[in-house]
């Protein structure tokens, strides 16, 4: 049987937070990725990844969850926990066998105790003392085994909770990553159109300056606008390809800059906010762990009080352990309430931002329709009319980005309803 303390050490992992990391775009993340690769002792030649041309959100999540390492490695902050968690997975496979072995031993010891108890009634003097000592020893062994079983069951429960929590965290994190990649694609497409408009602005300013109807300052300003947009597009592209490479690494596929990301249907009627706080909080992985810790603390306290040889100091220690576990639950309840408040607040903001983006889009459509009438009447030039169309593209992009933010908030709420909270 594995040492109980080893299992409990791995179970401690469950008490550590699992945070969702936003899309990274700096050198630090690149260095961390390289360090992870070096620590694993593998290179691109060692790992045969799959060539993929088309991805869907469901495919991304499935690939991540099917990869055992991705249960802990997808976020670089969890790398320190990797070996402990993988050991814990091995422990989970053995725990049921350990418990069955202990229960068999426990049954045998109880039978032996009953047999000696019967002999004690018939014995006298030294025999009774010897039997009494043997019974006390057996009671101690039984208590130790019962405690071991309790510890193993608690450890297994905590590990199962952690496995489910990590899966939900991975699903939410990858959904956010995938949607943000789609957003970057939309932003790049719009910026490319804006650059073309800026190029036309430069040409117009240069012609006006050439014919004496414009200034050199206007030309320089138009060129600066074009350069700013080109730099913006370059930054968007760097972020996109960097995050696409990270996603490829996370799901064990070969990096392909031309990888097609299938669009996601992000249409929702409205965000469903959390109403029943108590029910949701009770169902979170964090609260379930805290409640299990309290149950274990109470068990140890009861064992101490039932032990005639236990000192008052030991009993007091176990009392304080119970109080600490109870206080942890109270503290956690307040923390989770605050997080749900924040999530509901984000839901309200996401709804307002989306409604505002839709309202502005309708205004732009109205303005463009009026401008089109003036263009058809010959009052407005084709150049100005085409330029105004870019405002419609910007308004459409804003609606899409607001819709994506709204969709991600809804995903966070659904993950919370499954027990996971960021």
Automatic annotation (TrEMBL):
Name of the featured protein: Outer membrane protein TolC
Keywords tagged on the record: Coiled coil, Signal
Species in which this protein is naturally found: Paranoxybacillus vitaminiphilus
Span of the signal peptide: 1-24
Any GO MF annotation of the entry: efflux transmembrane transporter activity
Coiled coil: 92-155, 181-239, 333-405
């Amino acid at each position: 049987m594995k040492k109980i303390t080893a299992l409990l050490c791995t179970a401690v992992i469950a008490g550590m937070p699992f945070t969702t990391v936003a899309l990274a775009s700096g050198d630090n993340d690149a260095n961390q990725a390289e360090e992870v690769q070096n620590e694993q002792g593998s290179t691109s030649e060692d790992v045969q990844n799959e060539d993929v041309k088309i991805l869907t959100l469901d495919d991304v999540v499935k690939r991540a969850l099917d990869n055992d390492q991705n249960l802990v490695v997808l976020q670089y902050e969890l790398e320190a926990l990797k070996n402990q968690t993988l050991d814990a997975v091995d422990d989970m496979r053995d725990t049921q066998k350990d418990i069955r072995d202990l229960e068999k031993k426990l049954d045998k010891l109880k039978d032996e105790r009953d047999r000696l108890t019967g002999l004690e009634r018939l014995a006298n003097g030294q025999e009774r003392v010897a039997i009494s000592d043997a019974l006390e020893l057996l009671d101690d062994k039984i208590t130790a085994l019962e405690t071991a079983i309790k510890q193993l069951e608690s450890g297994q429960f905590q590990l199962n909770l952690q496995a489910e929590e990590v899966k939900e965290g991975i699903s939410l994190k990858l959904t956010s990553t995938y949607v943000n990649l789609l957003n970057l694609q939309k932003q790049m497409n719009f910026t490319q159109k804006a650059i073309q408009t800026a190029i036309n602005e430069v040409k117009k300013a240069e012609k006006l300056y050439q014919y004496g109807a414009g200034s050199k300052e206007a030309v320089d300003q138009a060129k600066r606008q074009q350069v700013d947009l080109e730099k913006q597009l370059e930054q968007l592209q760097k972020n996109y390809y960097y995050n696409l490479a990270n996603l490829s690494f996370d799901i064990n596929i070969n990096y392909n800059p031309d990888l097609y990301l299938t669009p996601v249907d992000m249409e929702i009627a409205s965000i469903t906010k959390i109403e029943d706080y108590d029910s949701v909080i009770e169902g979170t992985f964090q609260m379930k762990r805290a409640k299990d810790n309290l149950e274990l603390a109470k068990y140890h306290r009861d064992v101490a009080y039932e032990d005639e040889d236990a000192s008052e100091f030991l009993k007091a220690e176990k009392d304080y352990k119970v109080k600490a576990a109870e206080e942890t639950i109270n503290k956690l309840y307040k923390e989770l309430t605050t997080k749900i408040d924040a999530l509901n607040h984000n839901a309200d903001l996401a709804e307002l931002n989306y409604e505002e983006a839709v309202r502005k889009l309708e205004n732009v459509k109205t303005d463009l329709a009026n401008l089109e009438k003036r263009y058809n009447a010959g009052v407005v030039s084709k150049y100005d009319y085409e330029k105004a169309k870019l405002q419609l593209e910007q308004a459409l992009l804003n609606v899409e980005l607001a819709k994506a933010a709204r969709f991600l908030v809804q995903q966070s709420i659904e993950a919370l309803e499954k027990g996971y909270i960021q």
